[in-house]
């Protein structure tokens, strides 16, 4: 996502691609040629192509309002998408904090079986990793990348059960939806459990090279592989677990390759004609062999089901109070609601009839614009028409680009950055050891009553009965009244100091 001011910053190819110049220049060029033709014929021949401009003001105002409404509607979807990702961040924090802090480390289940601290840490950190996997799965879900076999998602969910009966036979008929939608005939799932390979962590470059090679063999795009090769400076997937997969994992970010038609969209009509003729030449018999789309599984929904099952597991063993259980359930429901709203934004485009009618109306307006202004502008009709085409077509193209802000366009939301921010925050939460407050409150580093009293907490506790007496501070009453007077003095001092 490019968000810096283009007027006061250095330009780059990325920033240029984030503009809509590549999309609107064919229209600008076409209507400029029309304006050139009208100007030359009117000025150099005896024929005048000028027409009355009575409708110019009315139609221009109406068209401008409609385009403004189109752009505003798209920007509202853009803003709503950002708010939804903020809700995912907040809910992920809350779930991680409740699990990590409020679920006890040393506990005994209903069958009187003790659970050690190591078991509790492994269990809770695993569930927190599932919370992280939710945001990553939502990212791939919104980008229409089905399945779980991605470098940033598979290490977080690979331990989840794959079959309805883990102790029974491993048959495709018993495979759970989370995995069924991701399997194909090219890479069949082995019946034996996958083992974790030994890895030499001293040489991370070899691992990255192996990933790039396996990506090529698995049919992953060259762009995704090239993105992995630049990981000497930035490789967020290196912070994830190193697990074995029976098939090559897709890249975490796989933007579409830039083609010739992205810079010259006017030639797409020839590509369409060529593909249509090719299908007709191949005949119907060949087209019948096509396979339908792979059945999809809602991976974010599957992850929230496991989170809800963990909540039920805590309640069954009385390891969570009802109030905290209610908060945990509400945050899991918030994740589900947010995912549904994001899907609504991404899968509900503006109706085709509205877009087509607006585009054709704009083209007709720009086509007849030179005929209406040539009598007043003369040769200035050419740059005037070009500017009008650039302005109106640009706003219309911007609205079309940002109405689905979850892809790989330069103006889309930085969804990858949101997921990495959630990952950092969850790891920061689990880095805390949740110590007893008495271990850090009554220390020499703590001056709780400053600035009125700058003694540390351990000094105040050395003789707590005589910490505040009338002899020390001139108070007539010892005890809490003296402490309240110190707190009042704190307020006066802070109010005076901060207002200077």
TrEMBL record:
Protein name: Uncharacterized protein
Keywords assigned: Cell membrane, Ion transport, Membrane, Transmembrane, Transmembrane helix, Transport
Any matching Pfam family: Bestrophin_2
Taxonomic source organism: Mycena sanguinolenta
Transmembrane segments: 49-69, 362-382
Lineage, top ranks: Eukaryota, Fungi, Dikarya, Basidiomycota, Agaricomycotina
Domain of life of the organism encoding this protein: Eukaryota
Cell location: Cell membrane
Main location: membrane
Any one GO molecular-function label of the UniProt entry: chloride channel activity
Recorded GO CC terms: plasma membrane
Membrane topology of this protein: Multi-pass membrane protein
